[in-house]
Amino acid sequence: LERTLDVDFYHVQELLADEEQERAVRIREALEQHVTPIIEDHWERAEFPHQIKPIFPELGVYGPLWEESRLWENTALYRGWVALEFGRNDASVATFVGVHSGLAMNAIGMCGDAGQRAEWLPRMARGELIGAFGLTEPLHGSDTARGLETTARRVGGEWVLDGAKRWIGNATFADVVVIWARDVADDQVKGFIVETATSPGFTATKIERKQSLRVVQNADITLEGVRVPEERRLQLGNGFRDTARVLALTRAEVAWQAVGNAVGAYEAAVRYVTEREQFGRPLASFQLVQDLLARSLGNITASIAMCTRLSQLMDEGRPYDQQAALAKAFVTARGREVVGWCREALGGNGIQLDQGVARRFADAEALYTYEGTYQMNNLIVGRSITGKSAFV
Ligand code: FAD
């Protein structure tokens, strides 16, 4: 009997231009060549594979949205499909790119003026500077809009930043970190480009013993009297509303990455149940195992369809913030189910790194929580349905 291993069950890739499909395949192949052979070991050791960094600039994955940094014109659907390919290979590497390109470069692209975009984006696109994005704090995660405590004080032509950040991806080795701080004069949240090597008072300490996305280097940051010239304040970021615009954009990408993470687990499970035999037959021939696979493919297919339409809305220039929040919540929740079913299909080997499912099982947890938790994104949607904010 003919069988399909292709998770793109409804042929969404055909909506991409031929050139975009070819580029996505090139990215998949580069990840399979450079990331696949080393990733489980790095995951286990919680180390970032710095040797893979040089492959990304030429693949055009850094800052594809901005004229200053993109290598070619591209669509949101293409960028989404690329995020899926990253997530399918490894969600930590996807997150590394998501933080550098999605959060840091998009913060500069959306909230920086033309001069700031020209100054920072080309070097970040070439990978000469790696970025991070510092919003979350030790005492404020979901409530950063209201509670953010890091302060920015204007002193002459400079700003002085004081405070602490937590969970900041890439921050142990980033060259530039966009720090979000509250201007003590007008109480508004503003973004500042902090150059880590030349900013006394800035320290980043790796968060150890993480059990999800172990390859991502998350850090606690302290800012003690860090001085930032006015030219490094993001000139078009004048309140949390602007920070939220960046988050809506990256949320759409995280949704695609999360589909990819589920796809990676599903593909590994299909391979495994086809090869492994019990009761003298392949696991794949049992009805209950097939049910796990069909349910997984259903979740993946629904998620791809939702993300596809979200990307089309973005390409059409229509509002998408609410849709991105719903997609991020829905897809990460469905992805969490998929990795659970796939883990189950592998029996004991499902909790062992070598089979490619355990890592995705653990990583689904962080995807479900960062870039707005499941609850926060649903509350954004709930506010849109009812007109009532239930955050507080
Ligand atoms: P909390 O806000 O304390 O929430 C705990 C629980 O309470 C959650 O389930 C939440 O949904 C729920 N909750 C909170 N308020 C409400 C409410 N009003 N109603 C209902 N439920 C509620 N941040 C950055 O700035 N930069 C990064 O690069 C970055 N990378 C990250 C990478 C990883 C691996 C992780 C785990 C986090 C990262 N974060 C980063 C932080 C991330 O965005 C936060 O973890 C997230 O926003 C949740 O905040 P919290 O962990 O403080 O949880």
Automatic annotation (TrEMBL):
GO terms for molecular function: acyl-CoA dehydrogenase activity; flavin adenine dinucleotide binding. Keywords: FAD, Flavoprotein, Oxidoreductase. Residues 237-385 form the Acyl-CoA dehydrogenase/oxidase C-terminal domain. One of its GO terms (biological process) is fatty acid beta-oxidation. The keyword Flavoprotein applies. It comes from the Bacteria. The keyword Flavoprotein applies. InterPro entries: ACX4-like, Acyl-CoA_DH_CS, Acyl-CoA_Oxase/DH_mid-dom, Acyl-CoA_Oxase/DH_mid-dom_sf, AcylCo_DH-like_C, AcylCo_DH/oxidase_C, AcylCoA_DH/ox_N, AcylCoA_DH/ox_N_sf. Its cofactor is FAD. Residues 132-226 form the Acyl-CoA oxidase/dehydrogenase middle domain. Residues 18-128 form the Acyl-CoA dehydrogenase/oxidase N-terminal domain. Belongs to the acyl-CoA dehydrogenase family. This is Acyl-CoA dehydrogenase. It comes from Protaetiibacter intestinalis.
